[in-house]
């Protein structure tokens, strides 16, 4: 195992010379020993991959995937790319399309640097070097999770003895995580005021009165709005998958049993949803809804489904309008999920029991609710401290 000038392991056949040039020696398919050079470690890896191919790897992934017996798998030598294909098509076969797409996006960050290396060539130092080059701690953390899972499956198939990705350090930038954005009461009222005659208004009211996730709101259908009993039934979420310019919408059930829940409807929300229904009924006849999505509560002016990017773009445009009309305010940007944070924080500030909030938010555990959404507002801090001072 070669080392750098600082003593770090670089991988089989790779070393760093005194002039700081990286050198890699390998045996080609004809049995001849060759040497290549590069100025950087990343470049030597790329050059080495271009020059070599594992000699015992099957020619196509299609010939690998049908393998089912562990003893047959263990006789092969897989590259990380090849094993990823088996992992995604076998171990993750029952995952949702949105989840599979997330896995693909994360793995693509690693594909070009270590994907063509065999599983046995992966080592902690090599992996740490590759992860150090990723753009942020967040991307490092996401990539580590998927790589650990991939290599755990390789261990179970007796392809590797231990998982070299377990101890990868992902916190390198040490950038302090920003506090979650929570809208103040004044900001909420300003949002309502400026968006009152726009299609964002009913979305804001629904989000800030229910704490529903954005996918649950845009996936809400009229059969789940019970005006008689003042209940909103959360039974599904709407997901959007980009597809070469032609996006695909899919309804998904909640991931957990707790996600399926009933949320009481406030008076304000009921009035707004009645207005929303009347607006939809007034749409031009030519506004044909997408097949399979005819009953959506929230749609575009063309009666088409919405997705997160639609909502985010509209929010950004609205914030620009607010700041232009009120330059002294400096209304800060926020994401749709910020509305869920705001709902939960306000519920706690007004005295709602955490266990009740957990049920409204659709969390499996109380700990998740407390860790993620219970932010204490400045006004609440002052009130609580005042109570303590009076007791003294």
Textual characterization of the structure:
This protein is mostly helical and 392 residues long. The chain has 3 domains: 1-52, Classic Zinc Finger (Double Stranded RNA Binding Domain); 56-177, Orthogonal Bundle (DNA polymerase, domain 1), CATH 1.10.150; 185-386, Intergrase catalytic core (hpI Integrase, Chain A, Orthogonal Bundle). Helix content is 46%, strand content 10%. It has 15 helices and 10 strands. The chain has helices at residues 41-51, 70-74, 80-91, 97-114, 124-132, 137-156, 185-195, 200-210, 214-218, 267-281, 308-325, 336-349, 354-361, 366-373, 378-391; strands spanning 2-3, 9-11, 14-16, 22-27, 33-38, 225-226, 231-234, 237-241, 248-252, 261-264. The strands form 4 sheets. It has a 3-stranded antiparallel β-sheet with strand order 3-4-5. It has a 3-stranded antiparallel β-sheet with strand order 6-7-10, with no helix packed on it. A two-stranded antiparallel sheet has the order 1-2. β6 (225-226) and β7 form a beta hairpin. α8 runs parallel beside α12 (336-349). The radius of gyration is 27 Å and the shape is elongated. The termini are far apart. Residues 54-71 have low confidence and may be disordered.
